[in-house]
Amino acid sequence: IPAAAFLLQHGLDLEDAEVQQRAEALIDFWASESQTEVGLPRTWYNIHDQSGITWRTNPTLSHLRIVSDGMKGVLDAWRLRPRPSWLAYARSYGDFLLSKQSPDGSLAAEYNWDGSFFANYTDATDHPIPFLVDLFWATSDAKYKDAALRAGEFALKNIHARYRYVGGCVDNPMDKEAGVLAFRAFLALHEVTGDSRWIAPAV
User: In terms of CB atoms within 10 Å, which of 89, 102, 123, 161 comes out highest?
Assistant: First the structure.
């Protein structure tokens, strides 16, 4: 989906209607076909299955990194082409995250497709923060900003302070990507609050 958002921007820059239509069709597909009743979108379309639209069901494909990156791409595209269906799609995932957030601000990393917990480790709590901040900007609904801040407070104490930058690369628990994701999360919190306390963990 982020690639489709880039494609849409490219089409707009070139004033190329065909490129724009291709990008829009990609996002329309995901918004209409990947959503689940609980608000957790499926992430792996079986492109070679000729019997119809089917999806892989491995719960690890619900990892916060995978879904949140995709849904942030939806909001990137929505800013360029504000379609109500795209925002509703993103908002559904935001509401799913809020329903799963623990009182301490943490989020489990992976879920079954019925919304139940699959992997309860919380080292990926910072991954959806930029998406939640963007969703707040898009909707002006403070509940998404509040959820991002609660996740940030948890990440500050349990990820940054303990230097537990893990889980950014979904198939490798020890990786460099988790640090970049935390950097992006803390900067998003600084942007939405103006509070300089979020700068220190980013650097």
Answer: 89
In which region does residue 105 sit, left (phi positive, over 0), alpha (psi from -120 to 50) or beta (all else)?
Answer: left
User: Which residue do the tokens 């700068």 mark?
Assistant: 199
Burial of residue 185 (number of CB atoms within 10 Å: 0-12, 13-18, 19+)? buried
What are the pLDDT digits (tens) for 38-75? Answer: 999 999 988 888 788 889 888 888 999 899 999 999 99
Q: What are 45's strand-pairing partners?
A: 55
* Among 35-39, 104-108, 152-156, 165-169, the least confident range: 165-169
Q: Which H or E element spans position 117? A: strand 117-119
Minimal CA–CA distance to 68: which of 135, 140, 145, 143?
135
Report yes or no: 77 and 29 within 8 Å, Cβ to Cβ.
no
Per the CB < 8 A criterion, the answer to whether 123 and 144 are in contact is: no
Q: pTM for the full model?
A: 0.93
- Residue pair 170/66 in contact by the 8 Å Cβ criterion: yes
DSSP line for 145-196: HHHHHHHHHHHIIIIITTT--EEEETTEEE-SHHHHHHHHHHHHHHHHH--G
